[in-house]
Amino acid sequence: MSTLPARAERRCHNAVNPLHSCLFFSPDLGAELGKLGIEEPSAAYFATRAAAFGPVGAATVTATFYNFNPALVAEHVPAVWSVASPEQVLGARLRAADATLRRLLGEEIIASDEMAEAARLALRATEACTPHARPLYAAHAELPVPDEPHLAFWHAATLLREHRGDAHLAALLAAGLDPVESLVSHTATGKGMAIRWILSSRGWRRTDWEAASGRLRERGLLAAGEELALTDAGTALRAEVEEATDRMDTAPYEHLGAEDVERLTELGRGFLFTAASNGAFPAEATGR
Fold it and tell me: Which domain of life does the UniProt lineage start with (predicted)?
């Protein structure tokens, strides 16, 4: 039985994860990868997130990323590794993370005791992460921890993100939600990204989206009509997906303890507020 307050791990994740994911929206990442010859946004994303695996093929990326169109993945993987090696991409990623965090948070926060504390807490949480059935986490766990506190914090945020993300994919699979259905049902909760952003970034067509919506309606999970809204059954299923994810992601936060989880959440929220205020996330990615 968990000793944490209800959903404490989810709240902590929601505070810490964006400090990792803001990198994918950062012009600094595009600039660093551009120096290596990787300029197409999808190629940059696949390379950045998959580099920890080594020079894997499209099947591995499709399987572990879950909700991207396999055809889009195959356009760029494994061809991207002939442009730049995974080791080069990992170096560029870390340089971009450094530049991004310095730009979004400012040098005072970067050098603060609070950042050093957040790094210590986040790294301690990762001590209880487990690799079994978590391929993206396991690959990233083999990477060295950076020396500078803000990069150590970013590295730990990456580990915690992928640890939870791998569990989330297991929960989606158990719920019977295929890649597009998972995107549609998440958007229908009101918490997803803008549909146009999802379609362009994930490589799906509007017809794919409508077909998935139809399947969800047939299952009684999506309400009839043009408005994208979950039924009571759909709401319950999405809630169970999140609860199952929480159950599979409790260990790092139990290891940290309730008081330190609350403190890491507090620190993460403070950093996130500053980063968001400085334009960490593009407006076009939100809304419907």
Answer: Bacteria
Decide if 288 is inside a domain.
no
* Number of folded domains that form the chain: 1
Torsion over CA: 65, 70, 75, 79 (sign): positive
Spell out the alpha helix ranges (H) of the chain: 8-21, 27-36, 41-50, 58-65, 70-76, 86-105, 107-110, 113-126, 135-141, 149-174, 179-188, 195-202, 206-218, 232-248, 251-256, 258-277
Q: What is the pLDDT of residues 100-122, one digit of tens each?
A: 999 999 999 999 999 999 999 99
Compute the distance between CA of residue 184 and CA of residue 177 in angstroms, rounded to an integer: 10
**CA dist list (Å): 78 to 43, 168, 201, 257:** 10, 26, 18, 42
Structural domain harbouring 54: 17-174+242-281
Confidence of residue 216 (pLDDT cuts 50, 70, 90): very high
For residue 135, whether the previous peptide bond is cis, meaning omega lies within 30 degrees of 0, is no
- Please tell me the distance from the alpha carbon of residue 76 to that of residue 207, in angstroms, as a whole number: 23
Pure H helices in 77-178: 86-105, 107-110, 113-126, 135-141, 149-174
Q: Which two tokens stand for residue 161?
A: 């993100």
Contact criterion met (CB below 8 Å) for 16 and 157: yes
Of 255, 274, 277, 272, which Cα lies nearest the Cα of 8?
Answer: 255
Q: How many other C-beta atoms can be found within 10 angstroms of the C-beta atom of residue 143?
A: 15
Amino acid present at 180: V
The single-letter code of the amino acid at 265 is T
DSSP state of 144: P
